[in-house]
Amino acid sequence: MKCCDGGEFSQGNLNRYGNIELSPSAGILNYGQGVFEGLKAYRREDERVLLFRPEENAKRLKKGAERMCMPSPTIEQFVNAVKETAIANKRWVPPPGKGSMYIRPLLMGTGNVLGIGPAPEYTFIIYSSPVNSYHNHEGGLNLVVEDKLYRAVTSGTGGVKAVTNYAPIYKAKIDAKAKGYADVVFLDAATGNYIEEGSTSNIFIVKDNIIATPPTNGTILPGITRKSIIEIALDSGYQVTERAVSLEELLDADEVFLTGTAVVLNPIASVTVPYKGIRTEYRTGAETVSQKLYETLTGIQSGRIEDTKGWTVEIE
Ligand code: PMP
Protein backbone atom coordinates (compact mmCIF):
# COMPACT_ATOMS: atom_id res chain seq x y z
CA MET A 1 0.00 0.00 0.00
CA LYS A 2 1.39 3.45 -0.92
CA CYS A 3 0.53 7.00 -0.02
CA CYS A 4 1.72 10.42 -1.20
CA ASP A 5 0.69 14.08 -0.83
CA GLY A 6 -2.99 13.68 0.01
CA GLY A 7 -2.23 11.40 2.96
CA GLU A 8 -4.54 8.65 1.68
CA PHE A 9 -3.30 5.11 1.22
CA SER A 10 -4.21 3.22 -1.96
CA GLN A 11 -5.08 -0.47 -2.07
CA GLY A 12 -1.96 -2.65 -2.27
CA ASN A 13 -1.15 -5.99 -3.89
CA LEU A 14 -0.29 -9.40 -2.55
CA ASN A 15 3.20 -10.34 -3.70
CA ARG A 16 5.54 -13.22 -3.00
CA TYR A 17 7.97 -12.48 -0.18
CA GLY A 18 11.04 -10.77 -1.65
CA ASN A 19 13.27 -7.73 -1.67
CA ILE A 20 11.87 -4.25 -2.08
CA GLU A 21 13.53 -1.36 -3.88
CA LEU A 22 14.43 1.75 -1.91
CA SER A 23 16.07 4.99 -2.91
CA PRO A 24 19.36 5.60 -0.99
CA SER A 25 17.78 8.82 0.34
CA ALA A 26 14.58 7.16 1.61
CA GLY A 27 13.46 8.59 4.98
CA ILE A 28 13.47 5.18 6.64
CA LEU A 29 17.09 4.45 5.70
CA ASN A 30 18.57 7.78 6.73
CA TYR A 31 16.42 8.99 9.61
CA GLY A 32 14.57 5.90 10.79
CA GLN A 33 11.13 7.21 9.85
CA GLY A 34 9.24 4.00 10.43
CA VAL A 35 6.86 2.24 12.81
CA PHE A 36 5.82 -1.38 12.89
CA GLU A 37 3.50 -3.85 14.57
CA GLY A 38 3.53 -7.51 15.51
CA LEU A 39 0.54 -9.79 15.90
CA LYS A 40 -0.19 -13.47 15.63
CA ALA A 41 -2.62 -15.81 13.88
CA TYR A 42 -3.53 -18.99 15.81
CA ARG A 43 -5.01 -22.21 14.44
CA ARG A 44 -7.87 -23.73 16.42
CA GLU A 45 -8.54 -27.43 16.86
CA ASP A 46 -11.37 -27.09 14.31
CA GLU A 47 -8.88 -25.63 11.75
CA ARG A 48 -10.35 -22.11 11.92
CA VAL A 49 -7.66 -19.41 12.10
CA LEU A 50 -7.97 -16.51 14.53
CA LEU A 51 -6.21 -13.14 14.80
CA PHE A 52 -5.85 -11.57 18.24
CA ARG A 53 -7.06 -7.95 18.59
CA PRO A 54 -5.79 -6.63 15.22
CA GLU A 55 -7.70 -3.35 15.72
CA GLU A 56 -5.48 -2.60 18.72
CA ASN A 57 -2.41 -2.93 16.52
CA ALA A 58 -4.05 -0.65 13.94
CA LYS A 59 -4.67 2.02 16.61
CA ARG A 60 -1.15 1.76 18.01
CA LEU A 61 0.38 2.05 14.53
CA LYS A 62 -1.71 5.16 13.94
CA LYS A 63 -0.44 6.77 17.15
CA GLY A 64 3.11 5.85 16.26
CA ALA A 65 2.71 7.28 12.77
CA GLU A 66 1.52 10.59 14.25
CA ARG A 67 4.55 10.74 16.55
CA MET A 68 6.85 10.03 13.62
CA CYS A 69 5.08 12.59 11.36
CA MET A 70 3.71 10.01 8.94
CA PRO A 71 0.25 9.42 7.51
CA SER A 72 -1.12 5.95 8.26
CA PRO A 73 -3.62 3.52 6.75
CA THR A 74 -7.12 3.69 8.26
CA ILE A 75 -8.01 1.14 10.95
CA GLU A 76 -10.15 -0.66 8.37
CA GLN A 77 -7.37 -0.68 5.74
CA PHE A 78 -4.94 -2.02 8.34
CA VAL A 79 -7.21 -4.82 9.56
CA ASN A 80 -8.26 -5.81 6.02
CA ALA A 81 -4.65 -5.91 4.85
CA VAL A 82 -3.64 -8.04 7.86
CA LYS A 83 -6.55 -10.40 7.18
CA GLU A 84 -5.67 -10.64 3.50
CA THR A 85 -2.07 -11.50 4.36
CA ALA A 86 -3.19 -14.09 6.91
CA ILE A 87 -5.62 -15.70 4.45
CA ALA A 88 -2.96 -15.87 1.72
CA ASN A 89 -0.57 -17.57 4.16
CA LYS A 90 -3.13 -19.65 6.02
CA ARG A 91 -1.46 -22.96 5.21
CA TRP A 92 1.64 -21.82 7.11
CA VAL A 93 -0.22 -21.31 10.39
CA PRO A 94 1.10 -24.16 12.62
CA PRO A 95 -1.27 -26.67 14.22
CA PRO A 96 -2.69 -25.83 17.67
CA GLY A 97 -0.02 -25.93 20.38
CA LYS A 98 2.81 -25.98 17.82
CA GLY A 99 3.26 -22.23 17.47
CA SER A 100 1.54 -19.52 15.49
CA MET A 101 2.01 -17.28 12.49
CA TYR A 102 3.66 -13.97 13.31
CA ILE A 103 2.46 -11.06 11.17
CA ARG A 104 4.61 -7.95 10.80
CA PRO A 105 3.03 -4.73 9.44
CA LEU A 106 5.63 -2.06 8.68
CA LEU A 107 4.97 1.58 7.77
CA MET A 108 7.89 3.62 6.48
CA GLY A 109 8.94 6.79 4.77
CA THR A 110 10.10 5.60 1.36
CA GLY A 111 10.21 9.00 -0.36
CA ASN A 112 13.49 10.88 -0.84
CA VAL A 113 14.59 13.37 1.82
CA LEU A 114 17.97 14.99 2.23
CA GLY A 115 17.31 17.06 5.36
CA ILE A 116 15.26 16.08 8.40
CA GLY A 117 11.65 16.20 7.30
CA PRO A 118 8.75 13.99 6.35
CA ALA A 119 9.34 11.83 3.29
CA PRO A 120 6.97 12.68 0.41
CA GLU A 121 5.97 9.04 -0.03
CA TYR A 122 5.10 6.26 2.41
CA THR A 123 4.83 2.51 2.03
CA PHE A 124 2.92 0.08 4.20
CA ILE A 125 3.90 -3.57 3.84
CA ILE A 126 2.98 -6.71 5.75
CA TYR A 127 4.90 -9.96 5.86
CA SER A 128 4.49 -13.06 7.95
CA SER A 129 6.34 -16.10 9.21
CA PRO A 130 5.44 -19.20 11.23
CA VAL A 131 7.02 -19.05 14.69
CA ASN A 132 7.53 -21.51 17.48
CA SER A 133 6.01 -21.02 20.88
CA TYR A 134 8.59 -19.08 22.92
CA HIS A 135 6.97 -19.92 26.19
CA ASN A 136 8.97 -21.51 28.97
CA HIS A 137 6.61 -21.71 31.93
CA GLU A 138 8.19 -24.70 33.61
CA GLY A 139 11.52 -23.20 34.50
CA GLY A 140 10.91 -19.55 33.74
CA LEU A 141 13.39 -17.12 32.23
CA ASN A 142 16.47 -15.59 33.84
CA LEU A 143 16.73 -11.82 33.44
CA VAL A 144 19.43 -9.28 34.15
CA VAL A 145 18.93 -5.63 35.15
CA GLU A 146 20.72 -3.13 32.91
CA ASP A 147 21.90 0.04 34.66
CA LYS A 148 23.99 1.72 31.97
CA LEU A 149 22.08 1.47 28.71
CA TYR A 150 18.58 2.91 28.56
CA ARG A 151 15.82 1.98 26.16
CA ALA A 152 13.80 5.17 26.13
CA VAL A 153 14.05 8.73 27.37
CA THR A 154 11.27 10.98 28.68
CA SER A 155 9.37 12.57 25.78
CA GLY A 156 11.21 10.35 23.28
CA THR A 157 9.53 7.68 21.16
CA GLY A 158 9.50 4.83 23.72
CA GLY A 159 5.70 4.89 23.93
CA VAL A 160 5.24 4.02 20.26
CA LYS A 161 6.57 1.15 18.20
CA ALA A 162 9.17 3.14 16.24
CA VAL A 163 11.82 1.12 14.43
CA THR A 164 14.51 3.25 16.05
CA ASN A 165 13.48 2.19 19.58
CA TYR A 166 15.21 -1.11 19.02
CA ALA A 167 18.64 0.32 18.18
CA PRO A 168 19.43 1.35 21.81
CA ILE A 169 18.69 -2.15 23.12
CA TYR A 170 20.91 -4.16 20.78
CA LYS A 171 24.02 -4.02 22.89
CA ALA A 172 22.27 -4.67 26.19
CA LYS A 173 20.39 -7.67 24.79
CA ILE A 174 23.40 -9.19 23.02
CA ASP A 175 25.61 -8.78 26.11
CA ALA A 176 22.89 -10.29 28.33
CA LYS A 177 22.48 -13.30 26.01
CA ALA A 178 26.24 -13.84 25.92
CA LYS A 179 26.14 -14.10 29.73
CA GLY A 180 23.32 -16.65 29.63
CA TYR A 181 20.35 -14.38 30.40
CA ALA A 182 17.18 -14.55 28.33
CA ASP A 183 16.49 -10.83 28.41
CA VAL A 184 17.16 -7.49 30.06
CA VAL A 185 15.09 -5.44 32.52
CA PHE A 186 15.42 -1.80 31.53
CA LEU A 187 15.23 0.97 34.13
CA ASP A 188 13.82 4.47 33.74
CA ALA A 189 16.41 6.83 32.28
CA ALA A 190 15.33 9.75 34.50
CA THR A 191 16.22 8.20 37.89
CA GLY A 192 17.37 4.64 37.32
CA ASN A 193 15.28 3.58 40.32
CA TYR A 194 12.22 2.15 38.57
CA ILE A 195 11.73 -0.79 36.24
CA GLU A 196 10.30 -0.12 32.79
CA GLU A 197 10.10 -3.19 30.55
CA GLY A 198 11.98 -5.98 28.81
CA SER A 199 13.49 -5.51 25.36
CA THR A 200 10.27 -6.49 23.57
CA SER A 201 7.86 -7.13 26.43
CA ASN A 202 6.10 -5.50 29.36
CA ILE A 203 6.87 -6.52 32.92
CA PHE A 204 4.57 -7.39 35.85
CA ILE A 205 5.24 -8.22 39.49
CA VAL A 206 3.02 -10.16 41.89
CA LYS A 207 3.33 -9.61 45.65
CA ASP A 208 0.84 -11.15 48.10
CA ASN A 209 -1.46 -11.88 45.14
CA ILE A 210 -1.56 -8.19 44.14
CA ILE A 211 -0.38 -7.47 40.61
CA ALA A 212 1.50 -4.32 39.60
CA THR A 213 2.95 -3.11 36.33
CA PRO A 214 4.64 0.19 35.40
CA PRO A 215 2.35 2.75 33.74
CA THR A 216 2.60 3.42 30.01
CA ASN A 217 3.28 7.12 30.38
CA GLY A 218 5.48 7.71 27.36
CA THR A 219 8.63 5.67 27.86
CA ILE A 220 6.97 2.24 27.94
CA LEU A 221 5.20 0.62 25.00
CA PRO A 222 1.47 0.10 25.70
CA GLY A 223 1.50 -3.62 24.99
CA ILE A 224 -1.68 -5.25 23.72
CA THR A 225 -0.88 -8.38 25.71
CA ARG A 226 -0.32 -6.16 28.79
CA LYS A 227 -3.75 -4.57 28.33
CA SER A 228 -5.37 -7.99 27.84
CA ILE A 229 -3.67 -9.49 30.90
CA ILE A 230 -4.77 -6.56 33.08
CA GLU A 231 -8.36 -7.15 31.97
CA ILE A 232 -8.14 -10.93 32.47
CA ALA A 233 -6.61 -10.45 35.93
CA LEU A 234 -9.30 -7.98 37.00
CA ASP A 235 -12.02 -10.34 35.67
CA SER A 236 -10.42 -13.15 37.69
CA GLY A 237 -10.70 -11.10 40.88
CA TYR A 238 -7.10 -9.93 41.26
CA GLN A 239 -6.19 -6.43 42.29
CA VAL A 240 -4.07 -4.81 39.58
CA THR A 241 -2.30 -1.48 39.84
CA GLU A 242 -0.55 0.48 37.11
CA ARG A 243 2.08 2.47 38.97
CA ALA A 244 5.80 3.09 39.18
CA VAL A 245 7.50 -0.12 40.37
CA SER A 246 10.90 0.28 42.01
CA LEU A 247 13.84 -2.05 41.55
CA GLU A 248 13.54 -2.96 45.25
CA GLU A 249 9.94 -4.06 44.71
CA LEU A 250 11.00 -6.17 41.75
CA LEU A 251 13.55 -7.93 43.95
CA ASP A 252 10.99 -8.42 46.73
CA ALA A 253 8.20 -9.84 44.50
CA ASP A 254 6.75 -13.36 44.77
CA GLU A 255 6.33 -13.71 41.01
CA VAL A 256 7.50 -11.76 37.99
CA PHE A 257 6.36 -12.23 34.40
CA LEU A 258 6.78 -10.68 30.97
CA THR A 259 4.00 -10.15 28.44
CA GLY A 260 4.14 -9.55 24.71
CA THR A 261 3.03 -10.90 21.38
CA ALA A 262 6.23 -12.93 21.04
CA VAL A 263 6.61 -14.10 24.65
CA VAL A 264 2.81 -14.28 25.28
CA LEU A 265 3.15 -14.49 29.09
CA ASN A 266 6.43 -15.83 30.31
CA PRO A 267 7.23 -16.34 33.99
CA ILE A 268 10.58 -15.21 35.31
CA ALA A 269 12.71 -17.60 37.34
CA SER A 270 15.30 -15.08 38.47
CA VAL A 271 16.49 -11.50 38.21
CA THR A 272 20.17 -10.64 38.61
CA VAL A 273 21.43 -7.16 39.43
CA PRO A 274 25.17 -7.48 38.71
CA TYR A 275 26.14 -4.04 40.03
CA LYS A 276 24.53 -4.83 43.40
CA GLY A 277 25.71 -8.45 43.47
CA ILE A 278 22.08 -9.64 43.95
CA ARG A 279 20.16 -12.52 42.38
CA THR A 280 16.51 -13.11 43.34
CA GLU A 281 14.49 -16.21 42.49
CA TYR A 282 10.73 -16.28 41.98
CA ARG A 283 7.87 -18.76 42.12
CA THR A 284 7.02 -20.37 38.76
CA GLY A 285 4.96 -23.33 37.55
CA ALA A 286 1.62 -24.77 38.64
CA GLU A 287 -0.61 -22.81 41.04
CA THR A 288 1.06 -19.48 40.33
CA VAL A 289 -0.88 -16.34 39.38
CA SER A 290 1.09 -16.13 36.14
CA GLN A 291 0.18 -19.69 35.19
CA LYS A 292 -3.54 -18.99 35.70
CA LEU A 293 -3.38 -15.81 33.62
CA TYR A 294 -1.39 -17.62 30.92
CA GLU A 295 -3.99 -20.39 30.68
CA THR A 296 -6.82 -17.90 30.23
CA LEU A 297 -5.01 -15.73 27.70
CA THR A 298 -3.86 -18.63 25.53
CA GLY A 299 -7.27 -20.27 25.93
CA ILE A 300 -8.93 -17.23 24.38
CA GLN A 301 -6.24 -16.81 21.70
CA SER A 302 -6.48 -20.42 20.59
CA GLY A 303 -10.27 -20.67 20.81
CA ARG A 304 -10.07 -23.20 23.70
CA ILE A 305 -11.94 -20.76 25.95
CA GLU A 306 -14.99 -18.91 24.65
CA ASP A 307 -14.10 -15.36 23.65
CA THR A 308 -16.76 -13.26 25.38
CA LYS A 309 -14.79 -10.06 24.76
CA GLY A 310 -14.68 -10.05 20.97
CA TRP A 311 -10.89 -10.11 21.00
CA THR A 312 -10.45 -12.76 18.34
CA VAL A 313 -11.11 -12.18 14.66
CA GLU A 314 -11.64 -15.16 12.41
CA ILE A 315 -10.08 -14.93 8.96
CA GLU A 316 -12.11 -15.82 5.80
N1 PMP B 1 7.45 -3.49 24.88
C1 PMP B 1 8.18 -3.47 23.74
C2 PMP B 1 9.37 -2.59 23.68
C3 PMP B 1 7.82 -4.27 22.64
O1 PMP B 1 8.56 -4.25 21.52
C4 PMP B 1 6.68 -5.11 22.75
C5 PMP B 1 6.30 -5.98 21.60
N2 PMP B 1 5.42 -5.33 20.73
C6 PMP B 1 5.94 -5.09 23.94
C7 PMP B 1 6.37 -4.27 24.99
C8 PMP B 1 4.71 -5.91 24.10
O2 PMP B 1 3.66 -5.42 23.29
P1 PMP B 1 2.55 -6.40 22.71
O3 PMP B 1 1.94 -7.08 23.86
O4 PMP B 1 1.60 -5.49 21.99
O5 PMP B 1 3.25 -7.33 21.79
From TrEMBL:
One of its GO terms (molecular function) is branched-chain-amino-acid transaminase activity. Its cofactor is pyridoxal 5'-phosphate. GO terms for biological process: amino acid biosynthetic process; branched-chain amino acid biosynthetic process. The keyword Metal-binding does not apply. Pathway: Amino-acid biosynthesis; L-leucine biosynthesis; L-leucine from 3-methyl-2-oxobutanoate: step 4/4; Amino-acid biosynthesis; L-isoleucine biosynthesis; L-isoleucine from 2-oxobutanoate: step 4/4; Amino-acid biosynthesis; L-valine biosynthesis; L-valine from pyruvate: step 4/4. Its EC number is 2.6.1.42. One of its GO terms (cellular component) is cytoplasm. Transmembrane segments: none annotated. Keywords: Amino-acid biosynthesis, Aminotransferase, Branched-chain amino acid biosynthesis, Pyridoxal phosphate, Transferase. Belongs to the class-IV pyridoxal-phosphate-dependent aminotransferase family. This is Branched-chain-amino-acid aminotransferase. It comes from Quillaja saponaria.
